[in-house]
Amino acid sequence: VSTANEYACKGLDKLEEKLPILQQPTEKLVTSTVTGAKDVLTSTVAGAKDAVTSRVTGVMDMTMGAVQGSMELTKSAVTSGVNTVMGSTVGQMVVSGVGSMLEKSEELVDHYLPMTD
């Protein structure tokens, strides 16, 4: 019995050397474990929050880019349409008619509202 006890004590000594946590009081182990779990949970929640924020920001950036792209496309289409109309025969007739109207209105203004000294 004493030989078995001696070997058991040596085995426990080696185990305590390799695992110093075994020598700590139970209250300290529980507190340490709870604090560690709390830290891990806080870190995990913060990481999840950052991931969600990052994804929301990415989606907002993509949406803003799509809206801006749509606006540029619309602007380009309108500009192209106006240029096409203005370059056509009908567009040239409109430009010519507007030009003639402006000339005539200037003549009428000069006639009915002559410049004074």
From TrEMBL:
Which keywords annotate this record? Lipid droplet
The answer to whether keyword Protein transport applies is no
Tell me if Cell division is a UniProt keyword of this record: no
Subcellular localization: Lipid droplet
Membrane-spanning residues where?
Answer: none
**Gene Ontology biological process terms from the UniProt entry:** lipid storage; positive regulation of triglyceride storage
Please report a single Pfam family linked to this protein. Perilipin
Single GO cellular component term: lipid droplet
- Enumerate the Gene3D superfamilies for this protein: Perilipin, alpha-beta domain (3.30.720.170)
Q: Which InterPro entries match?
A: Perilipin
Family assignment from sequence similarity: Belongs to the perilipin family.
What is the protein named? Perilipin-3
Taxonomic source organism:
Pterocles gutturalis (yellow-throated sandgrouse)
